[in-house]
Amino acid sequence: MTEGGHPGTAPSGSARRFDLGRRLRVLSGVDEGVLDQVPLERTRYVGLGGVVLGTAVVAGVSMWFALSQVLGGAHIAMLIPTVIWMLIVLNLDRWLVSTVTGIWQRRLLMLIPRLLVAVVLGFIIAEPLVLRVFETAVVQHVVDEREAVRNAERDRLLECNLGVPTGTPARQDCRNAKLLASNSEADADALDRLERDAEKLRAQVNADEKEYGRLRKQANDECAGNKGEGVSGKRGIGPLCRRLDAELREFRASHNLDANHRQLQEWGRQISGLRGPLADKQTDFGRQIERSVEDRLAALPGRDDPVGLLERMRALHEITAENVYLFGASWLFRLFLILIDCLPILVKLMGGTTTYDRMVDHANRTQEKIHEKRLQLSTEAQIGELELHAYRDAEERRKQRQLIDIASKAADAEARAAVEEMIRQRAEEMHRQNTRAVPREERRNGAHPHADLAGPLN
């Protein structure tokens, strides 16, 4: 029967070789022998095979995108895993839509688990395609996040190694952030210590100078006769003038004003001697730190580095979590792709029970009955063969027992005959011995040689 359903005309070899409909029906798992009896349903199964092929193609495209995102670009070698994945999905969908026959309750119980499998497979296939659609926003989000991470790491390293304020909150965690040991830390500590000591001494000297100036002014006013607080207002070197002048000299000596001034000058020269070389050392150390920071940052993903699949998935989640519109659009597209992957099962489910399905179910039941009958007959034949072998074995054992009994009886008869023969031979031998002994006795006694034998014989 031909594709159009006209009986009696077989398709030629070239038509069968290029029969696209037959190739598509193979993908739907139909039996052409049964389908030839219902040619009007060929279109249905051609369409079902096309749906199976379409889902496999979508799965292949999804695998291609996933591999390109994982490897950071496309390569001709990716065709091998892409084709393998496409064939896996193709055969899985072909299995899902085939051999689903019987009444609708039974079909539903068989199709629901297969639909769940198709949904899970749809999620796996849909994700790379969703990432491809939102690739621009996803890649930009990943690049911005990488830059933020690099900047934060740069600030942390500079702050932990140079103590440079970065405008960000102070970081307490400097673990694994120490890049180089500075050779100017000892000079910096000495300079810092000198500056603290000089500042403290300068504050003390300033206070002493202020008090010394007040005492000197008071002594001068007393000696000059100027009026004021704590002075007499009388001009001349009187007792109060001499006392104030003595207190002034005692204050200068007790507070070591001259020694403190000399100490400040000495510390000032030391500080000046340390600041110049220390500034050069710190400048060189800062350059080394900056180079080390750049080397450390070079290990982090940069703007132009490939964006991996996991980074894309995380970026898509973060983008859609912040934007309701993108969240809805991504899930609508994802559900659309899942629906496409479930189409073979949905088409099979919505198609209902066809004449072909009923014929296949009837053929399956018939073959099952034939198989059961064949198995029953084979079992009975094997049982009969076993019983026949058992009967033959029993007969063989019975015959062997009979032969053994006959052989045993024959052996007993032979033994008895041998014993009787031995007895007979022994008797004859004894008789001959007795016969030879009697004549000698008779000759000795003069009796007739056969007198004793005659008696017993009569």
Q: How many strands, which pairing sense, and closed or not: the largest β-sheet? A: none
Please state the overall shape, judged from the principal axes of the Cα atoms: elongated
CA radius of gyration: 61 Å
Helix content: over 70%
Ends distance: 119 Å
The proportion of strand residues reads under 5%
Q: Which secondary-structure class do the elements indicate?
A: mainly alpha
Number of domains: 3
Parts with pLDDT < 50 across at least 5 consecutive residues: 1-15, 166-171, 447-458
Order of helices and strands: HHHHHHHHHHHHHH
Please give a handful of descriptors for the protein shown:
458 residues; 0% strand; 14 helices; 79% helix; mainly alpha; disordered C terminus
Description:
This protein starts with 12 loop residues before the first helix and ends with a helix. By secondary structure, it is mainly alpha-helical. Helix content is 79%, strand content 0%. Helix 4 (42-71) runs parallel beside helix 6 (104-133). It has three domains: 13-133 and 323-353, no CATH class; 154-298, no CATH class; 359-444.
SSE topology:
Blueprint: H1 13-17, H2 20-27, H3 32-35, H4 42-71, H5 79-97, H6 104-133, H7 135-162, H8 185-224, H9 239-254, H10 257-298, H11 309-322, H12 324-350, H13 355-445, H14 451-457
Helix pairs in contact: 2-4, 4-5, 4-6, 4-12, 6-12, 7-10, 7-11, 8-9, 8-10, 11-12
